[in-house]
Amino acid sequence: MVHVNIFDTTLRDGEQSPGVNLNQLEKLEIARQLERFGVDIMEAGFPASSQGDFEAVRTIAQTIKNSSITGLARATKTDIDIAWDALKDAAEPRLHVFLATSPIHMQYKLLKSPEEVIQTAIDMVSYARKRFPHVEWSAEDASRSDLDFLVRIITKVIDAGATVINLPDTVGYTTPEEYGRMFRYIRENVPNIHKVALSCHCHDDLGMAVANSLAAIENGATQVEGTINGIGERAGNASLEEIAVALNIRKDKYNFTNNLVLKEIKRTSDLVSRFTGMLVPPNKAVVGKNAFAHESGIHQDGVLKNTLTYEIITPELVGVKSNDLVLGKHSGRHAFKDKIEQMGFHLLPEKLGEAFTSFKQLTDRKKEVTDEDLFTILTDIQTAVVDIKKYELVAFQVQYGSANLPTATVALTTPEGIRVETARTGSGSVEALMNTLEALIKEEIHLTDFRLSSIGQGRDALAEAHVKMTVNGSPVSGRGSAQDVLEASAKSFLNAVNRVFFTHNAVLKETAML
Ligand code: KIV
Ligand code: ZN
């Protein structure tokens, strides 16, 4: 059996999804979960793209020990130097440097001749190898590149020291048959190809990213790149959980091994969905809410007689558990700690205290506290940044009646610690609340999106709100949960605004304590 390395790029290509912006604690939590999921390589970000990305990559490189950590760099010395600064403390630092090879990219984007592109690729890979033990070189837009040009440049880049060659379908254009053929051609025609790992990286513009990735593996790729829930640029990247489950369920056809721990899929998917605000469609393969639901009578009857009639994947395989009542009103701190540790949460002592208080408050107001409820409370507390100056909600009141003008009154403390309050109206209660918050906040805010959903079922379910806005011109997103929809809305608004105050020091302080 051939071993395939799993390269996760949720924190880099995934984070490039429109409207996604993760804070550093959220990125760190996703990185920890990816490590539990067993990914071999984790692309933690693009260090030269912003100070925030640099800090996040550095923190992840210093924390994660069981996956190799990589960061993206353009083919410039500056990008490579910055990436080295961010990655040098990793257990196994690795660079991912890319340069486009298709005629359209070389001519219009790079403004370079093919010979200049070859020389730049050689120079940058050899420059990178002076520092990094592992260097992946990506031929951006490989699937629209000339095959013989690819053979020439790949041969030279391997001689320059590349250890992995990645052939992305950057624009999601190729078909499984074509993509597989490209891998076979490169395997058969690049004389030194045996010295490197060959990697595939697919986008889903035509809905073929997973099929293309599987075709690449069948034709000689030994590394597959993708993201959790398939998030990423435009229509997204190949979904890693789909590839993992396809390789497992169809092992009769795919004779490949990997290191993934499939029962971590559900938790990984939930965490990514919650932090990015990109909800998983109910009909999504493997992780959608309906993936294991059988609606029609004929199917239900079949499954009751023998689950194999209609169920090819068991929920247990991917870590989907029945949503039992977890803890009750009388559960003590010890039982609570045990439970949350079983759920994969390891909180600092003060955050554990806060989580226990929130749990107790919830048991007073909600009949059943489920795993989903706990997951929501815990992820909020785990990634809340303490010790930074921020806006905090003191109290609010909303008056709404079908014949009245909806009016909200809000009291906040500002980052300077001053209590401020005011009232505003709006055409609905949520708008009145948001108008009031906006009036109290000094920053320039434009709300661009607002979504409300419930966590789990039942009329007493927790509400979760997601907002997108620009704060002083920068796009940010935020989320908030509460039992009341208005409180969840206010929290999501402030969560987005406060991301602006999230500083490097706050992260280092948090991580130093873990
Ligand atoms: O899709 C792509 O080509 C990329 C490269 C940077 C590898 O994400
Ligand atoms: Zn990509």
From TrEMBL:
Mn(2+) binds at D13, H201, H203, N237. Keywords: Acyltransferase, Amino-acid biosynthesis, Branched-chain amino acid biosynthesis, Cytoplasm, Leucine biosynthesis, Manganese, Metal-binding, Transferase. One of its GO terms (molecular function) is 2-isopropylmalate synthase activity. Residues 4-266 form the Pyruvate carboxyltransferase domain. It comes from the Bacteria. Its EC number is 2.3.3.13. Residues 392-514 are annotated as: Regulatory domain. Its cofactor is Mn(2+). Pathway: Amino-acid biosynthesis; L-leucine biosynthesis; L-leucine from 3-methyl-2-oxobutanoate: step 1/4. It is an enzyme of class 2 (transferase). It catalyses: 3-methyl-2-oxobutanoate + acetyl-CoA + H2O = (2S)-2-isopropylmalate + CoA + H(+). NCBIfam families: leuA_bact (TIGR00973), PRK00915.1-2 (NF002085), PRK00915.1-3 (NF002086), PRK00915.1-5 (NF002088). Belongs to the alpha-IPM synthase/homocitrate synthase family. LeuA type 1 subfamily. Homodimer. Catalyzes the condensation of the acetyl group of acetyl-CoA with 3-methyl-2-oxobutanoate (2-ketoisovalerate) to form 3-carboxy-3-hydroxy-4-methylpentanoate (2-isopropylmalate). PANTHER family: 2-ISOPROPYLMALATE SYNTHASE 1, CHLOROPLASTIC-RELATED, HOMOCITRATE SYNTHASE-RELATED. This is 2-isopropylmalate synthase. It comes from Neobacillus rhizosphaerae.
